[in-house]
Protein backbone atom coordinates (compact mmCIF):
# COMPACT_ATOMS: atom_id res chain seq x y z
CA UNK A 1 0.00 0.00 0.00
CA UNK A 2 1.34 3.40 -1.01
CA UNK A 3 1.78 5.97 1.84
CA UNK A 4 -0.23 9.18 1.63
CA UNK A 5 2.78 11.33 2.56
CA UNK A 6 6.23 10.94 1.23
CA UNK A 7 8.82 13.16 2.91
CA UNK A 8 11.67 14.30 0.72
CA UNK A 9 15.09 13.06 1.62
CA UNK A 10 16.98 15.55 3.79
CA UNK A 11 19.67 17.56 2.07
CA UNK A 12 22.72 17.93 4.38
CA UNK A 13 23.57 21.32 2.90
CA UNK A 14 20.04 22.61 3.51
CA UNK A 15 20.11 21.30 7.08
CA UNK A 16 23.37 23.11 7.77
CA UNK A 17 22.04 26.37 6.40
CA UNK A 18 18.83 26.07 8.44
CA UNK A 19 20.81 25.31 11.59
CA UNK A 20 23.08 28.31 11.05
CA UNK A 21 20.07 30.59 10.46
CA UNK A 22 18.26 29.34 13.56
CA UNK A 23 21.42 29.61 15.66
CA UNK A 24 21.99 33.14 14.40
CA UNK A 25 18.42 34.12 15.24
CA UNK A 26 18.79 32.64 18.73
CA UNK A 27 22.07 34.51 19.34
CA UNK A 28 20.49 37.72 18.04
CA UNK A 29 17.45 37.38 20.30
CA UNK A 30 19.64 36.64 23.36
CA UNK A 31 21.91 39.58 22.52
CA UNK A 32 18.95 41.93 22.13
CA UNK A 33 17.51 40.77 25.47
CA UNK A 34 20.85 41.25 27.22
CA UNK A 35 21.15 44.69 25.67
CA UNK A 36 17.63 45.55 26.80
CA UNK A 37 18.40 44.41 30.36
CA UNK A 38 21.66 46.34 30.36
CA UNK A 39 19.91 49.53 29.26
CA UNK A 40 17.21 48.96 31.90
CA UNK A 41 19.89 48.55 34.60
CA UNK A 42 21.57 51.74 33.43
CA UNK A 43 18.28 53.62 33.60
CA UNK A 44 17.56 52.26 37.08
CA UNK A 45 21.08 53.12 38.24
CA UNK A 46 20.86 56.62 36.77
CA UNK A 47 17.55 57.14 38.55
CA UNK A 48 19.05 55.81 41.80
CA UNK A 49 21.98 58.24 41.56
CA UNK A 50 19.53 61.07 40.89
CA UNK A 51 17.66 60.10 44.07
CA UNK A 52 20.95 59.97 46.00
CA UNK A 53 21.85 63.44 44.81
CA UNK A 54 18.43 64.78 45.79
CA UNK A 55 18.73 63.20 49.25
CA UNK A 56 22.21 64.69 49.67
CA UNK A 57 20.91 68.16 48.79
CA UNK A 58 17.94 67.76 51.11
CA UNK A 59 20.24 66.70 53.99
CA UNK A 60 22.54 69.67 53.36
CA UNK A 61 25.78 67.86 52.43
CA UNK A 62 28.61 70.23 51.52
CA UNK A 63 30.56 69.80 48.28
CA UNK A 64 33.43 67.93 49.95
CA UNK A 65 31.00 65.66 51.78
CA UNK A 66 29.10 64.91 48.56
CA UNK A 67 32.29 64.10 46.63
CA UNK A 68 33.47 61.78 49.38
CA UNK A 69 30.08 60.07 49.55
CA UNK A 70 30.20 59.54 45.78
CA UNK A 71 33.64 57.92 46.06
CA UNK A 72 32.47 55.67 48.89
CA UNK A 73 29.44 54.43 46.96
CA UNK A 74 31.33 53.94 43.69
CA UNK A 75 34.08 51.94 45.39
CA UNK A 76 32.07 49.89 47.88
CA UNK A 77 28.45 49.53 46.79
CA UNK A 78 28.03 50.88 43.22
CA UNK A 79 24.94 48.82 42.39
CA UNK A 80 22.88 49.98 45.41
CA UNK A 81 23.58 53.70 45.93
CA UNK A 82 20.25 54.48 47.62
CA UNK A 83 20.60 51.61 50.09
CA UNK A 84 24.07 52.84 51.01
CA UNK A 85 22.74 56.12 52.36
CA UNK A 86 19.42 54.91 53.79
CA UNK A 87 20.09 51.45 55.28
CA UNK A 88 22.49 51.37 58.20
CA UNK A 89 23.99 47.95 57.50
CA UNK A 90 24.84 48.97 53.91
CA UNK A 91 26.36 52.24 55.09
CA UNK A 92 28.36 50.48 57.82
CA UNK A 93 29.74 47.87 55.44
CA UNK A 94 30.69 50.46 52.84
CA UNK A 95 32.42 52.67 55.40
CA UNK A 96 34.33 49.70 56.81
CA UNK A 97 35.60 48.66 53.36
CA UNK A 98 36.43 52.26 52.41
CA UNK A 99 38.34 53.06 55.61
CA UNK A 100 40.20 49.73 55.59
CA UNK A 101 41.43 50.49 52.06
CA UNK A 102 42.63 53.93 53.15
CA UNK A 103 44.43 52.47 56.14
CA UNK A 104 46.22 49.90 54.00
CA UNK A 105 47.34 52.70 51.67
CA UNK A 106 49.34 54.15 54.58
CA UNK A 107 48.07 57.74 54.29
CA UNK A 108 47.57 58.52 58.00
CA UNK A 109 46.58 62.15 57.42
CA UNK A 110 44.08 61.28 54.69
CA UNK A 111 42.72 58.43 56.80
CA UNK A 112 42.07 60.78 59.73
CA UNK A 113 40.55 63.57 57.63
CA UNK A 114 38.29 61.19 55.72
CA UNK A 115 37.11 59.68 58.99
CA UNK A 116 36.04 63.08 60.28
CA UNK A 117 34.21 64.06 57.11
CA UNK A 118 32.41 60.71 56.89
CA UNK A 119 31.31 61.10 60.52
CA UNK A 120 29.64 64.38 59.56
CA UNK A 121 28.02 62.64 56.59
CA UNK A 122 26.68 59.93 58.91
CA UNK A 123 25.06 62.56 61.11
CA UNK A 124 23.50 64.43 58.20
CA UNK A 125 22.05 61.19 56.86
CA UNK A 126 20.52 60.39 60.25
CA UNK A 127 22.54 57.18 60.71
CA UNK A 128 24.37 58.35 63.83
CA UNK A 129 22.37 56.66 66.59
CA UNK A 130 21.21 53.18 67.52
CA UNK A 131 17.68 52.62 68.87
CA UNK A 132 17.54 51.66 72.53
CA UNK A 133 18.09 47.94 73.04
CA UNK A 134 19.21 47.19 69.49
CA UNK A 135 22.49 45.34 69.26
CA UNK A 136 25.55 46.99 67.78
CA UNK A 137 27.76 45.26 65.23
CA UNK A 138 30.67 47.66 65.05
CA UNK A 139 32.35 50.17 67.35
CA UNK A 140 31.35 52.87 64.87
CA UNK A 141 27.82 52.56 66.28
CA UNK A 142 28.92 53.65 69.76
CA UNK A 143 28.11 57.17 70.93
CA UNK A 144 30.02 59.77 72.90
CA UNK A 145 29.72 59.32 76.65
CA UNK A 146 29.66 55.51 76.48
CA UNK A 147 31.68 53.99 79.34
CA UNK A 148 34.48 51.62 78.33
CA UNK A 149 36.83 49.48 80.39
CA UNK A 150 40.15 49.04 78.60
CA UNK A 151 43.51 47.43 79.30
CA UNK A 152 46.66 46.51 77.47
CA UNK A 153 46.46 43.15 75.72
CA UNK A 154 50.19 42.54 76.02
CA UNK A 155 49.97 41.33 79.64
CA UNK A 156 47.39 38.93 81.01
CA UNK A 157 47.44 40.63 84.44
CA UNK A 158 47.15 44.21 83.14
CA UNK A 159 44.65 46.25 85.12
CA UNK A 160 41.39 47.53 83.68
CA UNK A 161 40.91 51.30 83.40
CA UNK A 162 37.52 53.00 83.26
CA UNK A 163 37.24 55.43 80.31
CA UNK A 164 34.54 57.16 78.31
CA UNK A 165 34.10 57.65 74.60
CA UNK A 166 35.15 61.25 74.01
CA UNK A 167 35.44 61.44 70.25
CA UNK A 168 34.00 59.44 67.36
CA UNK A 169 35.13 59.52 63.76
CA UNK A 170 34.94 56.83 61.11
CA UNK A 171 38.71 56.46 61.50
CA UNK A 172 39.16 56.20 65.26
CA UNK A 173 37.44 55.66 68.57
CA UNK A 174 38.78 58.26 71.01
CA UNK A 175 38.53 57.37 74.71
CA UNK A 176 39.07 59.90 77.49
CA UNK A 177 41.42 58.62 80.19
CA UNK A 178 40.98 59.34 83.90
CA UNK A 179 43.90 60.76 85.85
CA UNK A 180 44.65 57.39 87.45
CA UNK A 181 44.65 55.63 84.10
CA UNK A 182 46.82 57.94 82.05
CA UNK A 183 50.08 56.62 83.48
CA UNK A 184 50.12 53.35 81.55
CA UNK A 185 48.93 54.66 78.19
CA UNK A 186 52.26 56.24 77.11
CA UNK A 187 53.82 52.79 77.42
CA UNK A 188 51.58 51.47 74.65
CA UNK A 189 53.14 51.23 71.23
CA UNK A 190 51.40 51.97 67.96
CA UNK A 191 49.63 48.84 66.78
CA UNK A 192 49.63 47.20 70.23
CA UNK A 193 46.55 45.19 71.19
CA UNK A 194 44.00 46.74 73.56
CA UNK A 195 41.19 44.74 75.20
CA UNK A 196 37.89 46.53 75.75
CA UNK A 197 34.63 45.84 77.57
CA UNK A 198 31.41 47.81 77.73
CA UNK A 199 27.80 47.55 78.76
CA UNK A 200 25.03 49.20 76.76
CA UNK A 201 21.96 50.20 78.71
CA UNK A 202 19.13 47.68 78.23
CA UNK A 203 21.11 45.89 75.53
CA UNK A 204 24.04 43.64 76.39
CA UNK A 205 27.66 43.39 77.45
CA UNK A 206 30.29 43.55 74.73
CA UNK A 207 33.95 42.60 74.60
CA UNK A 208 36.34 43.28 71.75
CA UNK A 209 40.02 43.62 70.96
CA UNK A 210 41.42 46.45 68.88
CA UNK A 211 44.67 48.35 68.34
CA UNK A 212 46.12 51.47 69.90
CA UNK A 213 47.15 54.09 67.34
CA UNK A 214 48.16 57.26 69.18
CA UNK A 215 47.51 59.47 72.18
CA UNK A 216 46.62 63.15 72.41
CA UNK A 217 48.64 64.28 75.45
CA UNK A 218 46.90 67.67 75.69
CA UNK A 219 43.50 66.17 76.52
CA UNK A 220 44.49 62.64 77.68
CA UNK A 221 42.63 60.87 74.89
CA UNK A 222 43.75 57.51 73.51
CA UNK A 223 42.75 56.69 69.93
CA UNK A 224 41.81 53.14 69.00
CA UNK A 225 40.99 51.58 65.65
CA UNK A 226 37.41 50.54 65.00
CA UNK A 227 36.42 46.89 64.82
CA UNK A 228 33.36 44.87 63.88
CA UNK A 229 34.50 41.77 65.81
CA UNK A 230 32.34 42.18 68.90
CA UNK A 231 31.49 39.45 71.39
CA UNK A 232 28.02 40.06 72.78
CA UNK A 233 26.54 38.69 76.02
CA UNK A 234 22.82 39.24 76.64
CA UNK A 235 22.27 41.11 79.92
CA UNK A 236 19.03 43.10 79.87
CA UNK A 237 15.95 42.01 81.79
CA UNK A 238 13.62 42.15 78.79
CA UNK A 239 14.36 41.27 75.21
CA UNK A 240 13.97 44.25 72.91
CA UNK A 241 13.28 44.35 69.18
CA UNK A 242 13.30 46.96 66.47
CA UNK A 243 9.84 48.53 66.13
CA UNK A 244 8.78 51.29 63.77
CA UNK A 245 5.53 53.12 64.39
CA UNK A 246 4.54 56.75 64.20
CA UNK A 247 2.37 57.71 67.16
CA UNK A 248 0.89 60.55 69.17
CA UNK A 249 2.35 61.03 72.63
CA UNK A 250 0.22 62.38 75.45
CA UNK A 251 2.23 64.39 77.99
CA UNK A 252 1.01 63.83 81.60
CA UNK A 253 1.96 65.34 84.93
CA UNK A 254 4.05 62.83 86.89
CA UNK A 255 3.15 62.14 90.54
CA UNK A 256 5.48 63.82 93.03
CA UNK A 257 5.32 60.85 95.41
CA UNK A 258 6.29 58.24 92.81
CA UNK A 259 2.90 56.50 93.00
CA UNK A 260 1.94 55.64 89.41
CA UNK A 261 -1.21 53.67 90.23
CA UNK A 262 -3.49 56.40 88.83
CA UNK A 263 -1.42 57.08 85.71
CA UNK A 264 -4.16 55.71 83.46
CA UNK A 265 -6.68 58.23 84.81
CA UNK A 266 -4.50 61.31 84.39
CA UNK A 267 -5.43 63.74 81.60
CA UNK A 268 -2.82 64.81 79.02
CA UNK A 269 -1.50 68.36 79.23
CA UNK A 270 -0.66 68.38 75.53
CA UNK A 271 0.15 66.03 72.64
CA UNK A 272 3.20 65.74 70.40
CA UNK A 273 4.16 63.50 67.50
CA UNK A 274 6.85 60.85 67.84
CA UNK A 275 8.14 57.60 66.37
CA UNK A 276 8.67 54.41 68.35
CA UNK A 277 12.00 52.82 67.33
CA UNK A 278 12.27 49.83 69.69
CA UNK A 279 10.01 47.89 72.02
CA UNK A 280 10.20 45.41 74.89
CA UNK A 281 7.94 44.12 77.65
CA UNK A 282 9.63 46.60 79.98
CA UNK A 283 9.76 49.79 77.95
CA UNK A 284 10.37 51.49 74.62
CA UNK A 285 12.43 54.07 72.79
CA UNK A 286 10.78 57.03 71.08
CA UNK A 287 12.26 59.72 68.82
CA UNK A 288 10.68 63.18 69.03
CA UNK A 289 11.46 66.54 67.46
CA UNK A 290 11.82 68.51 70.70
CA UNK A 291 13.52 68.14 74.10
CA UNK A 292 11.48 66.53 76.84
CA UNK A 293 11.81 67.01 80.63
CA UNK A 294 12.17 63.83 82.66
CA UNK A 295 9.54 65.02 85.17
CA UNK A 296 6.58 63.99 83.00
CA UNK A 297 4.83 60.78 81.99
CA UNK A 298 4.11 59.67 78.45
CA UNK A 299 0.95 58.07 77.17
CA UNK A 300 1.69 56.14 74.00
CA UNK A 301 -0.74 54.33 71.73
CA UNK A 302 0.65 50.97 70.59
CA UNK A 303 -0.69 49.27 67.47
CA UNK A 304 0.63 45.73 67.64
CA UNK A 305 -0.16 43.46 64.66
CA UNK A 306 -3.41 41.49 65.04
CA UNK A 307 -4.24 43.32 68.30
CA UNK A 308 -6.52 46.20 69.20
CA UNK A 309 -4.65 49.51 69.79
CA UNK A 310 -3.76 50.01 73.44
CA UNK A 311 -2.62 53.07 75.43
CA UNK A 312 0.35 52.57 77.76
CA UNK A 313 1.86 54.98 80.26
CA UNK A 314 5.62 55.25 80.72
CA UNK A 315 8.09 57.26 82.77
CA UNK A 316 11.14 58.80 81.09
CA UNK A 317 14.34 56.98 82.03
CA UNK A 318 16.73 59.13 80.01
CA UNK A 319 16.91 61.43 77.01
CA UNK A 320 19.69 62.14 74.55
CA UNK A 321 20.07 64.61 71.70
CA UNK A 322 20.35 63.29 68.13
CA UNK A 323 21.17 65.02 64.87
CA UNK A 324 18.80 67.38 63.05
CA UNK A 325 17.12 68.55 66.26
CA UNK A 326 15.76 65.13 67.22
CA UNK A 327 15.76 63.63 70.71
CA UNK A 328 15.76 59.98 71.78
CA UNK A 329 13.59 59.16 74.81
CA UNK A 330 14.09 55.93 76.77
CA UNK A 331 10.96 55.11 78.73
CA UNK A 332 9.81 52.35 81.11
CA UNK A 333 6.16 51.34 81.53
CA UNK A 334 4.27 52.21 84.72
CA UNK A 335 1.02 50.80 86.11
CA UNK A 336 0.73 48.35 83.23
CA UNK A 337 -1.73 45.46 83.41
CA UNK A 338 -0.36 41.97 83.06
CA UNK A 339 -2.54 41.21 80.01
CA UNK A 340 -1.08 44.18 78.13
CA UNK A 341 2.47 43.27 79.15
CA UNK A 342 1.85 39.68 78.04
CA UNK A 343 0.70 40.85 74.61
CA UNK A 344 3.84 42.94 74.18
CA UNK A 345 6.06 40.14 75.48
CA UNK A 346 4.40 37.66 73.09
CA UNK A 347 4.97 40.00 70.16
CA UNK A 348 8.62 40.56 71.13
CA UNK A 349 9.15 36.81 71.55
CA UNK A 350 7.79 36.16 68.06
CA UNK A 351 10.07 38.83 66.61
CA UNK A 352 13.04 37.25 68.39
CA UNK A 353 12.64 34.09 66.33
CA UNK A 354 15.15 33.86 63.46
CA UNK A 355 13.53 35.06 60.24
CA UNK A 356 15.90 35.75 57.32
CA UNK A 357 14.03 38.79 56.07
CA UNK A 358 13.99 40.40 59.51
CA UNK A 359 17.70 39.75 59.87
CA UNK A 360 18.32 41.49 56.56
CA UNK A 361 16.30 44.54 57.59
CA UNK A 362 17.39 44.66 61.22
CA UNK A 363 19.61 47.68 60.83
CA UNK A 364 17.46 49.85 58.61
CA UNK A 365 16.85 53.35 59.73
CA UNK A 366 13.57 54.35 61.34
What can you tell me about this protein's structure?
It is a single chain. The longest helix has 48 residues, at 12-59. Helix 2 packs across helix 4, helix 2 (63-76) packs across helix 5 and helix 4 packs antiparallel against helix 5 (108-124). The chain is an alpha+beta fold and 366 residues long. The strands form 2 sheets. Strands 1-2-3-6-5-4 form a 6-stranded antiparallel beta barrel. It has helices at residues 12-59, 63-76, 81-86, 88-105, 108-124, 338-352, 356-361, and strands spanning 147-152, 161-168, 172-176, 193-199, 204-216, 221-225, 231-234, 240-253, 270-280, 283-288, 296-302, 310-321, 327-333. The radius of gyration is 29 Å and the shape is extended. The chain folds into 3 domains: 58-124, no CATH class; 139-234, Pnp Oxidase, Chain A, CATH 2.30.110.10; 240-361, predicted glycosyltransferase like domains (Thrombin, subunit H, Beta Barrel).
Amino acid sequence: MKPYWIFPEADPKTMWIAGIVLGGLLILSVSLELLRQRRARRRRLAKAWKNVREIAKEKGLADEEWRLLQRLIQQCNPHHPVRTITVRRHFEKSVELFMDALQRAGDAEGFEHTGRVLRDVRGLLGLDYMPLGQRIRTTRELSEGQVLWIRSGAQADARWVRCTVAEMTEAHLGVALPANGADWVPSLREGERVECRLWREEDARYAFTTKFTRRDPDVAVAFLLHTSSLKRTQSREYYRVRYDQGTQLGILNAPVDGDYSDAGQRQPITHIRGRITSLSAGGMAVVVQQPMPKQVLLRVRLKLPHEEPVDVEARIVSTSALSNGRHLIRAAYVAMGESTRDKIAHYVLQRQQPHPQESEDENETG
